[in-house]
Design goal:
Layout lengths: L3 H7 L8 H4 L10 H6 L1 H10 L1 H20 L10 H15 L8 E2 L16 H11 L7 E2 L4 E2 L4 H11 L3 E5 L2 H13 L3 E5 L5 E3 L2 E2 H7 L3 E5 L7 H7 L4 E7 L15 H10 L4 E6 L17 H6 L4 E5 L10 E5 L1 H9 L2 H5 L3 H13 L6 H4 L1 H6 L3 H19 L3 E10 L11 E10 L5 H13 L5 E2 L1 E3 L2 E5 L7 H4 L8
Parallel strand pairs: 1-15, 5-8, 5-9, 9-10, 10-11
Antiparallel strand pairs: 2-3, 4-12, 6-7, 11-12, 13-14, 14-17, 16-17
Helix pairs in contact: 4-5, 5-6, 7-16, 8-16, 9-14
The structure holds pyridoxal-5'-phosphate.
């Protein structure tokens, strides 16, 4: 490894070099991989993690140091044995740190799509863990000893909770919509109001979904007004399905008119056509009973006569990612038997969590305690304010004098396209830079530092302040105990 020519240029340990270059290490000063791996610290790492990972990281570390040395930017102190041991340990630890990590959602949006949407209930977590630790009866009928159907795990519960004749589940609601359209209308036409050609985000747009499902979209009405005769006139012998899409993430207000499900079902059924509704949010209980705005329920849609209703598992339902399809036996059977269903079927992980989540709805009196989504949405304002109060002193002290922290009233959101216009009265902390000059940079710096905490804190920037909404901070210690790690 030793290259004498370079040693001559930069000086070698044998021949003392001038002070300027003595501070820098050269490539030949670096130990060989084997030597680094024979040190006590490396041996301890190897005993814990095995040779492959540690040797790989040792090579990576030495490569990086060599490049630094060749650029004449490697201080000699950096290659002291204890420094090398420490850096190797850090590299191994970083390699083993999962990319997916818990965060503190202080955005004020309870069901935040980018932050994993609904939090699972304890019972769902426990059931999930128990089912994943070993074999289970996912597709095995214990009574007969024959092959079973994974849908049957939740079908009974879903029917009971929504009043449906039949139910099936897939990966997510986007898959549910795609499958429903493909199974009921492939190669034919689907009629949708122009007021309901929703884009959910992440490339889920109704017209594109329609195309992917192999159906032709027939748009009727206008953005703000669609009437029964718009649907009636669009029906031809190529029509296979009439569809309603819940405009979950926007609201059309003012001079508007839409055809309700009952009217639409009357029109469709008179011509022997089915109606499907994409409900999105998937509330199974009347939220107005909790002082929240009312979301349409699948049970209402079924009562109105819809043949199929689909909704998400991880929005207002408060469960895992899932697409729930409920409806008439005839329609659900067609959907379940459609070959695409196999590609979109739910995995055992979310299925276990979904079963346990649905189970919580059998005890509605306890739901606001047991279901984290509902617990957070109904959290008393005084409670949120108390949390903000509890966090304020430590945060103020840590951020002074560069920033000032104040307790502020806030307007939070339900999120994930649910009730987009409604706001939840909330409270939290507003952090403002003390100096006006460079305030923007100071805010970005703070937001970055908060995201770099062991438990990253995600807030939002508004009106030149960093806002930390405390609705979803049920335990103030989660924030206060890591404030000492804040580095600005
Ligand atoms: C959220 C939503 C979807 C997509 O549901 P995912 O479970 O996220 O796949 C589809 N339609 C509507 C109306 C929605 O609100």
């Amino acid at each position: 490894m030793s290259r004498p020519d370079e040693s001559v240029v930069h000086g070698s340990p044998a021949s003392p070099s001038p002070p300027a270059s003595e501070a820098l290490a050269t490539a030949p000063d670096l130990p060989a991989v084997d030597r680094l791996l024979r040190t006590g610290a490396s041996r301890a790492l190897i005993a814990e993690h095995g040779h492959t990972l540690v040797a790989g990281e040792a090579r990576g570390l030495l490569d990086a140091l060599r490049a630094q040395a060749l650029a004449q930017q490697l201080p000699r102190s950096d290659i002291a044995p204890e420094r090398l041991a420490q850096r190797l340990q850090t590299r191994v630890a970083e390699r083993l740190a999962p990319r997916m990590t818990p965060v503190l959602n202080l955005t004020g949006t309870v069901i935040h799509t980018n932050l994993g949407r609904a939090l699972l209930a304890d019972s769902a977590l426990q059931h999930l863990l128990a089912m994943m630790a070993g074999p289970n009866n996912l597709e095995y009928d214990l009574a007969s000893g024959r092959r079973g159907d994974r849908d049957s795990i939740v079908e009974g519960l879903l029917c009971e909770l929504t009043g449906a004749e039949a139910a099936t589940v897939v990966n997510n609601n986007a898959a549910a919509v795609l499958l429903t359209i493909a199974a009921l209308a492939r190669g034919q036409e689907v009629i949708v109001s122009r007021g309901e050609l929703v884009e959910i985000g992440g490339a889920f747009r109704m017209p594109d979904v329609m195309e992917s499902a192999g159906a032709r979209l027939v748009e009727v009405g206008t953005t703000n007004r669609t009437h029964p005769h718009d649907y009636e006139r669009a029906i031809t012998d190529r029509t296979a399905l009439l569809m309603k899409v819940h405009t979950s993430n926007y609201a059309v207000q003012g001079f508007t008119s839409a055809v309700d499900e009952a009217t639409l079902c009357g029109i469709a059924h008179a011509r022997g056509l089915p109606v499907a509704t994409d409900l999105g949010s998937g509330a199974l209980i009347d939220l107005s009973a909790y002082g929240l705005p009312r979301e349409p329920l699948p049970q209402d849609m079924l009562k109105a006569g819809c043949d199929v209703v689909s909704f998400s598992g991880d929005k207002l339902l408060g469960g895992p990612q899932a697409g729930l399809i409920v409806g008439t036996r005839a329609a659900v059977d067609r959907i379940r038997k459609f070959p695409m269903k196999r590609a979109l079927r739910m995995s055992k992980l979310p299925l276990a969590a979904l079963e346990a989540t649905l189970m919580l709805y059998l005890r509605p009196e306890r739901l606001a305690q047991d279901l984290p989504t509902l617990r957070l949405l109904t959290r008393p304002l005084a409670d949120i304010e108390a949390t903000a109060h509890a966090v304020l002193p430590a945060l103020s002290a840590a951020l002074a004098p560069r920033y000032t922290v104040t307790l502020v009233p806030l307007q939070g959101q339900i999120g994930s396209g649910s009730l987009p216009v409604e706001r939840l009265r909330s409270a939290g902390l507003a952090i403002a830079p003390a100096e006006r000059k460079g305030a923007g940079r100071a805010l970005d710096q703070l937001a970055t530092a908060l995201r770099a905490l062991p438990l990253p804190v995600i807030g939002r920037i508004a009106d030149d302040r960093l806002i930390l909404d405390c609705r979803c901070l049920e335990d103030p210690h989660q924030l206060t105990k890591q404030i000492s790690h804040l580095s600005l």
